[in-house]
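[Target chain]
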Amino acid sequence: MKIKHSSLRTSPLAPDATGDAEERSRVLVSEGVSEVLSEFARTMLTDFPIQGILDHLVKRIVEILPITAAGVTVMSPGSHPQYVAASNADALRFEQLQSELGEGPCVLAYATGASVSVRDLSSEVLFPNFSPRALQAGLAAVFTFPLHHGKSQLGALDLYRGTPGDLSVEAMAAAQTLADVAGAYLLNAQARADLQDASDQSRNAALHDSLTGLPNRLLMVERLEHAFLRERRSSHTSALFFVDLDRFKAINDTYGHHVGDELLVAVADRLTEVLRPGDSLARLAGDEFVILCEDLDSPTQADTITARIDEALATPFLLSGISVEVRASVGVALSGHSNDAPEQLLHEADLAMYRTKREHVSGRQILNLRDARDVERLAALESALPGAAERGELQLDYQPIVAAADVNLTGVEALLRWRHPTLGLVQPSVLIPLAEQCGEIIALGRWVLEQAWTDRGRWESGATTELGVSVNVSPHQLMSAGFTDTVAQVLSTTSTKPELLTLEVTESVFVRDGERALFVLNDLKDMGVTLALDDFGTGYSSLGYLRRFPVDTVKVDREFVANLGHDLPSHIIVTAVIQLAHGLGMTVTSEGVETAEQHSELTRLGSDSCQGFYFARPMSHSGLSTLVQQLDSIRGQSGPTSTSRRFAPRASPDSTAKARPQTAW
């Protein structure tokens, strides 16, 4: 037996081989290796499975080399083989035998990182257990080559022969080449598999509550969308129940947050028991749960479901040896209208719940916002939206974006506000779906884009440092005909660099029509604008989007930032997103930063920029202009060479307040 390290030393060809035969053999081996390498190259960047490529490899090796069979075993220290491939049943038997005995050329090559040649197994004494059994099964010679990458051992490639004798120099070299390429492919494929696992874990974490394991708001919105589609094909309606625990903060303050967490898990279990087959339960945030019940024959069925919810929570909870009583306020919104939108229905159920809580109505009561007064309110908003900009009812607030490392002001995000003269401030969660339903989203989006770009020029007038402005773009707006022309027209109104305009999109645009989205985004990139993927990790979270679409910036959602200090999955997700984005040449902006601890940790993890209440709340155009002037004045006092626009962060908000996440737009 020979063990080879840096070079291959083999016996010469058999004496009866002629020069012509040798040349033909070399040509055939060379051509065969070239074909196999080409096949490997075509699969390198695909999702072709590891087992499939190994099965194909061993069969192709038998076709191009003078051997009887071939096998591959991929392993890791201290564990069973991860993958085993064999060209036929005999090869599979030999691979499994070596794994079973922990002995044989494959095991030795893996342990030493060197190739092993056994030209005559009958005279080999190094494998006292393997050799007799392999000889009995018809094996006469074996040549093994390690699969490795650098110093990392991955497994081994075995070439089996039914007759003793050496392989030619060309055959040995070809086998080593194929083993090296196979090792590289395995690393590539494993990296893809790891990324896919990370993506799957990220998506699962993004769609489920880490404490209770229930679906979260994002997944509930998806299920609402599906429910609305099903309703259009039937005469049934759906009910959305918004369940909020009464005096939950007092329970936290009295018994501690660990008891509060236990209570939330126990409530989730109780509510799960009242669900019908097909119903969905989600935890939105804090002590808020929602239940989606589809296929109701009549709205009166909601009375029965609400009674079951109240009954389920009536029995005291035994938590950490403490008996805790809790009741809930329940609001319900009914679907069944052609203009239903998930966020709108959630908002209506939320309002109904707060009316229940405010009026101290028994949890067994239902306050349905689908009465005449509420329908009239929505109708009034719909009729008032056209012309709202001309009447001066729309305005933009701006939230500063700062460099994470030095807290320098680098840009702002534009946030849309609609103040109706009689109905008051209309929440974005109502305004945007309403604009999409009544066909005003294109005009509304254009107004936001034009106003933000105009305001940017005003507050930069006379300033010494350029600030970027970010504008949210809805999927309807991005995919509309002429959107790129609109952007080009807006950019042409000033001589400002186009890269100072950032257009923020969410992953939903890729899901609706990926090819169209790619076309539009490439056109926008050609104009020079910056593109940002907003709320990454909370939607479909496909790594393919980052690789395929021309995104410059990834924005980490506030949900993960909020849980950064006390939730390990959120920490892992934020770390992974930052590393992945940087690896693809993108920058990262973290949203919803509210504490010094969050800012410090995000800076340590490598986030490029941050925004949130810790630095500044959204402010009007005039307020931002004043801020820019103040910062420029400070900069001037620091000396002519200073470029700093650094400002002191705000004090962290009261952590005990029940804050609701701010919606973009």
